Amino acid sequence: MDPEILKFKILVLGDSGTGKTSIVRRIIRDEFSLVHSATVGVDFSVKVLNIAQGLEIRLQLWDLAGQDRFNHLSRLYYKQASGVLLVCDETKPDSLDSIVKWKGELDARLQYKIPAVLLVNKTDLIDDEDEGFSEDDLEKICSRLRIGSWSRTSAKDGFGVNECIKALVWDILSDKESKTPDPLTKTKDVFDWDDDCSSSIIRLGRQDLDLANSRGRARKCCH
Questions:
Q1: 0.90 surpassed by pTM
Q2: Cα within 13 Å of Cα(132), Cβ side
Q3: CATH no. for 4-219
Q4: Domain locations in the chain?
Q5: pLDDT of 43-59, one tens digit each?
């Protein structure tokens, strides 16, 4: 029997230089490169999650250039989005302020709400716990903008990236199930994975959905 296929369009939003392309590369290829060019227009990538119980999820990741001159692409970019990864740079305070702009533009472009996760990227460059953004500030902005969860991440070493995708996919599936007259029978068990799944697949597990991990680097901030 052919697997059930769900396609989710995931937007990747944030200022130029916050590491959006590196985040996508980490998700797609599980790799990092110090050499890459700034995104021109839109980059499109696909991640396929082969899941037990005959369910396949195809994540279509749309990475939009952060420069203002590409704003004319926004209408097509936002159309039919299922979820969004909002990316800021922990070494650049202004990039967190810009999340307000990006989320506001997203809400203005769409006539419906979609699940959102905030990635506080480049945490590997923070040596002192007093540097970077405070948890209080991150939780406040998530609550204010109705962002479902946040996590400190490092595209360079992979820290926190998969956990953010896991949280976003879970939120999308939960949202989809709540709005479907005939609920998806498989989503309630979607996190019971076959241990023989390919290691190239991002594995989802209920225990992984709590973003509060060691050193307080990740939090589930709002609902």
A1: no
A2: 22
A3: 3.40.50.300
A4: 4-219
A5: 788 898 876 677 888 99
